[in-house]
Amino acid sequence: MELIKAIYERRSVRRFKKDNVPDEIITEILDAARWAPSWANTQVCSYIVVKDQTIKERLVDTLPPTNPARNGIIDAPVLICLIAKRGVSGYYKGTASTNKGDWFMFDAGIAMEHIVLAAWNFGLGTVHVGMFDADKAQIVLNIPSEFNIVEMTPLGYFDDVPKATPRKQLKELTFLDEFGKPYITQ
Amino acid sequence: MELIKAIYERRSVRRFKKDNVPDEIITEILDAARWAPSWANTQVCSYIVVKDQTIKERLVDTLPPTNPARNGIIDAPVLICLIAKRGVSGYYKGTASTNKGDWFMFDAGIAMEHIVLAAWNFGLGTVHVGMFDADKAQIVLNIPSEFNIVEMTPLGYFDDVPKATPRKQLKELTFLDEFGKPYITQ
Q1: Is residue B46 situated within a structural domain?
Q2: Which residues does chain B have within 8 Å of residue A153's beta carbon, measured at their own beta carbons?
Q3: Which of A68, B97, B121, B185 fits a 20 to 30 Å CA distance from B54?
């Protein structure tokens, strides 16, 4: 699939078919995440592929009761969780290099979006899920304390492509040479 | 360009030609960033397109003297800076929804990577630059204090495609059902 088409047409999917996703495709999607750039190539992100239905259900319990992704996690055959090591990205010899401190969230955003776009390329839906009790999810997945679970996404086939959520206009989001000076003038 | 090809073949570019980049292409690249997903569609990222050579030079002065992206910023005709509003992404009614606090870094990672991938699609090089004195850059670009400048990237045409930086093996980066249990077993 064309890159620009994928970027424009990707949607957050929350209703999945139960059909199995072959491991060959899951592996290709994880490989796309592997190639994500990271701070000084520190590669702090790794991935837990959850297929066990009991574990998926325990993870669903870490989401708020109203979260619309809950059913998606139950139905989709696969859940991919992104974890990131703290204190490495954005650091030099143990000291934070910038006023942002740890850059693991930035690197995690890039890597997770590689997963999301690569999945779309294979006709698979995902949705960025960051709103859950990470301390509880950490226990469910046995994640050591030096890693943070950042996000999870169900991964699966779907019937209906959801509508696009609206976006601000480019005019509101862009400036030329300094803050406040319009880049787009028509 | 194919999405998967772009993900695998994209490289960080630090040596640019001085050739102009048409505004139509810059606009398409920014539009790809506009379509980036964000926490509850909060869309906290915006973009400053710097073409003014004096301002670019003042921004180069915020990078460490040894940063290999310095010459790239001088030579490339365009520098794109990503700024993000704090206290919105990851919050609900003013309270952080997760143990990560502000998610602006996560959303910024996604949006910046959309820029990087879309640029590659148009044959344009970029490099994620996060290592600079953000407080100084904030002043150069007149950025209000409720926004953080997160990253910048030169944008331009280039002659030689740099070599790939190595990546860890997928086996080291992936687990099945819980931390520590291998997903890839061959």
Answers
A1: yes
A2: none
A3: B121
Among A114, A141, A173, the residue with its CB nearest the CB of B7 is A114
- Complex confidence, ipTM: 0.98
Task: Identify all chain A residues contacting B59, using CB atoms and an 8 Å cutoff.
Answer: none
Q: Using CA atoms, how far apart are residues A44 and B96, in angstroms rounded to an integer? A: 24
Q: Which of A142, A137, A170 is nearest to A67 (CA)?
A: A137
Residue of A2, A3, A46 best to disrupt the B interface, most CBs of B under 10 A: A3
Most B-contacting residue of A62, A135, A140, A177 (CB-CB within 10 A), to test interface: A177
Mapped onto helix, strand or coil, the DSSP state of residue B77 is: coil
Residue B132, domain extent: 3-173
Region B157-177 average pLDDT: 97
Does residue B179 belong to any structural domain of this protein? no
Chain B residues near residue A13 by CB distance under 8 angstroms: none
Q: Model-level pTM? A: 0.98
Contact B155, B76 (CB under 8 A): yes
Closest among A131, A140, A33, A38 to A82, alpha carbons compared? A33
Q: Is residue B80 part of a domain?
A: yes
For residue B185, being part of any structural domain is answered with no
Q: How many domains does chain A have?
A: 1
- Chain segment B62-78, per-residue pLDDT in tens: 999 999 999 999 999 99
